[in-house]
């Protein structure tokens, strides 16, 4: 039974990697992917707040909670530079949105 669970996780991981490449995320580091997924998750959770993800909410997400501060900020900067996330307009620093219209429609 435990071997089957490991196999299931292995297959899920292979599927995830394939999906990441299909979405154009395959070139990102694991830290950058984790920050990106945390941002998207927070944006989705904050639909009632125009889909804005605040830095402290992102940092508290399970995917990045153990990430060092410099790594978190470096990954966030890379995602902004690549256009995967944007700074939220008309907000204080540390607020982010998705530039993707489809993802904003989810919010």
Structure description:
This protein has one domain (28-106): Orthogonal Bundle (Arc Repressor Mutant, subunit A). Helices cover 58% and strands 7% of the residues. It has helices spanning 2-22, 30-45, 55-60, 69-81, 101-106, and strands spanning 53-54, 86-87, 95-97. A three-stranded antiparallel beta sheet has the order 1-3-2. A hairpin with a 7-residue loop joins β2 and β3. The protein starts with a helix and ends with a helix. The mean pLDDT is 90.
Layout of secondary structure:
Elements lengths: L1 H21 L7 H16 L7 E2 H6 L8 H13 L4 E2 L7 E3 L3 H6 L1
Antiparallel strand pairs: 1-3, 2-3
Helix pairs in contact: 2-4
Short description:
Helix content is 58%, strand content 7%. By secondary structure, it is mainly alpha-helical.
Name its key features.
mainly alpha; three-stranded antiparallel sheet; elongated
Number of strands: 3
**What is the name of the CATH class?**
Mainly Alpha
Largest sheet: 3 strands, antiparallel
CA-based gyration radius? 15 Å
Order of helices and strands: HHEHHEEH
Main structural class: mainly alpha
Helix proportion of residues, in percent? Answer: 55-70%
- Rough outline: elongated
Strand residues, percent:
5-15%
Number of individual domains: 1
Distance between the termini: 40 Å
- Average predicted confidence as pLDDT: 90
Instruction: Pick out the low-confidence regions.
Output: none
CATH-defined topology: Arc Repressor Mutant, subunit A
Number of helical segments with 4 or more residues:
5
């Amino acid at each position: 039974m435990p071997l089957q669970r490991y196999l299931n996780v292995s297959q899920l991981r292979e599927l995830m990697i394939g999906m990441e490449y299909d979405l154009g995320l395959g070139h990102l580091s694991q830290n950058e992917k984790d920050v990106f997924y945390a941002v998207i998750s927070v944006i989705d959770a904050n639909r009632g707040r125009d889909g804005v993800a605040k830095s402290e909410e992102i940092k508290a997400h399970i995917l990045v909670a153990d990430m060092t501060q410099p790594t978190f900020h470096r990954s966030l900067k890379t995602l902004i530079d690549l256009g995967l996330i944007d700074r939220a307009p008309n907000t204080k620093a540390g607020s982010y949105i998705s530039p993707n219209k489809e993802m904003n429609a989810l919010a």
